[in-house]
Amino acid sequence: MIAGVTSNGKPYISDFHTDCDRKLTLDANKTGICLESKKMQKKHFFKSQDPSIPVMPMIIPHYLASIIWAYGETDQLEYTMTTEADFVFTYWTLYFIQHQLQNHCQDGKFQREQRFHPKKLLIGVPYIKYPQESIGSTILSRLGFGILENEVAVGHVHHYILWRCQAPNDADPRLIFEHLVSYPGEECYFNDKHQIPINLCRIMQYVFAVGGKGLIVPGDTGFPFGEFPYYMLETHYNNPEKINGLQFEAGVELVYTSKLRPIDAGTFAIGYDLFGLFMVPPASPNFDIPSHCDNRCTSEMFPSSGVDVFAVQGHTHGSGRKLKVRHFRGNKELPWIYKDENYDWTLQITRPLQTDRKILPGDHLTLTCSYDNTWTNTTTPSGFASRDEMCLTVIYHKTPIPYSGCSSQIPQKVLLGLVGVQNVTWDQLTQKRIVTSPPALSGQTLADITDRKVFWSKQLRATIATKTTASPQIIACPITTPPEDEPVEKVAILARGYGDQTLMGPTPVPVRTPGPHSVSGLPYLIQLYVRVRNCPAI
Fold first, then answer.
1. How many domains does the chain contain in total?
2. Is 125 exposed, middle or buried (0-12, 13-18, 19+ CB in 10 A)?
3. Closest by alpha carbon to 326, among 387, 255, 393?
4. The domain containing residue 16 runs over which residues?
5. Quick one: which of 504, 508, 286, 303 has its CA closest to 399?
6. Are 473 and 520 a contacting pair, CB within 8 Å?
7. Are both 213 and 79 inside the same structural domain?
8. One domain, residues 114 and 259
């Protein structure tokens, strides 16, 4: 639907649909009628209804992906995308008139003023506490999440992750977390001297990424709330201007009720390991990166009755174009859980599923991300910078589990050897991979070698593509809450992930976290899923 206001102030709206060939066609019925349109304080308000339903507002279907704005000559639009994919942009939001909260529902905020380091890229971890005086000690149900938007945050935040903190059963949470509420935060991944117990804050709650919207859970579901007042807000932000004293209010809005929902909700992520290595050759228009969560992990992660997925959010950086979550059970591929063939990294919206999807123990999940980096002349490696890439999906589901993720990676030596490198380390200051061997390349960044010294022949490109899609991957799904009889000092610090580089500092520190892992890949010799298109035969 295209809506707007003409130069003389007259509102208009046009209703389009696509056919099976994705050809855009104007709806001959013209069911969309704009009743009112106005613009106040850079906010656009539209009222519209379908005349066939006289008293009901127009329905926005579940498959609506995003609102795409077109700007007139007099609109002040700020948008820049440099060669390093830094993002500084502002946008106007379309405000749908929302239903009023029911009497038993309340809204609240996790928030704090946060000061950020003048690094170009940083991942910070502040603690926040929801004021218990406003909710008491009653267990409540959270019904939805959103973020606190402000102009500075919109231009610098890449994503937020809200984690719930939980002390061991025999410990007073106030003694562990209270003094950290005023702590300014620290780097959570590139840090071998943590001052905060990240290992006790690994229960994922909500994820926001660029262009994302709020999450509303199904009517029978809620996130338990009230018993655990301490939370950790992981903030991945860009500071391309290297602003000293960059500061803004960071936080999450929520809606909760004292009427407990019968089913508790949970969140976990699947994807390519954050410290794992993959490389997209320069100027690749369609390069696939798969990752897996195998039957061993799902057998450990999920109860015998399985979990029911109700929403999914995909996440890549600027070169991501497509994502798909495939679902295998036994010798058969089931319908895809999530599929986005028109992914836009600036509109990372959580998609509610039309019907819940059940994942059972023993199932196999495969996430495939497709990249197009023809906009740059350089290799695109995995990494945390916006110029680098990730491949993740966040899964919102019913029935919480003591796991926050399931990730996989190709052993880095498989790919490094193809570009003449034997080993690398992470440099904590620059947050880049530094080559340590062979000696002739030692001290150079991996990016310098792949961009300046590697000749990307057709054969090399094909070899890397084949190795990336066909190589067995190391798969890990570490438990994130300690068993009741497990001493807290023995709980693995999970912030470092399962990559097999080392952290470069005074003493290199292994990144690999101890724990079980398996080796697997894309299932084969099975019946593949073929989507049935509900279109008339031509």
1. 2
2. buried
3. 393
4. 2-95
5. 303
6. yes
7. no
8. yes
Catalogue the E-assigned strands of 376-508: 380-381, 392-398, 405-409, 423-427, 432-437, 473-476, 502-504
Whether residue 76 is found in the same domain as residue 149 = no
Looking at the structure, tell me whether residues 80 and 173 fall in a common domain: no
First-to-last C-alpha distance (Å) of the chain: 27
Long-range contacts of 527-534 (CB under 8 A, 24+ apart): 527/331, 527/332, 527/333, 528/333, 529/326, 529/332, 529/333, 529/334, 529/335, 529/336, 531/335, 531/336, 533/20
The count of other CB atoms within 10 Å of the CB of residue 126 is 23
Tens of pLDDT, residues 317-366 = 999 999 999 999 999 999 999 999 889 888 888 988 889 999 999 999 99
pTM of the predicted model, to two decimals?
Answer: 0.78
Which letter does DSSP use for residue 409 in this model? Answer: E
262 DSSP assignment: S
Residues forming a β-bridge with 427: 432, 504
Element (H, E) at 295: helix 295-301
Listed as ranges, residues in the chain with pLDDT below 70 are 1-5, 7, 11-13, 17-24, 28-144, 146-156, 190-192, 239-241, 243, 245-246, 248-250, 481-516, 533-538
Q: 383-405: string of b/e by CB count within 10 Å (b at 16+)? A: bbbbbbbbbbbbbbbbebbbbbb
Q: Is residue 183 part of a domain?
A: yes
The angle formed by the CA atoms of residues 62, 63 and 68, to the nearest 5 degrees, is 115
Please write down the HEC assignment for all residues of 307-364.
EEEEEEEEECCCCEEEEEEEEEECCEEEEEEEEECCCCCCCCCCEEEEEEEEECCCCE
CA distance 132 to 230: 10
| CB proximity list for 215: less than 8 A, separation 6 or greater | 144, 145, 146, 206, 311, 350, 396
In a domain, 438, yes or no: no
Percent of the chain with pLDDT strictly greater than 70? 62
Query: Please, which residues bridge with residue 264 across strands?
Result: 222
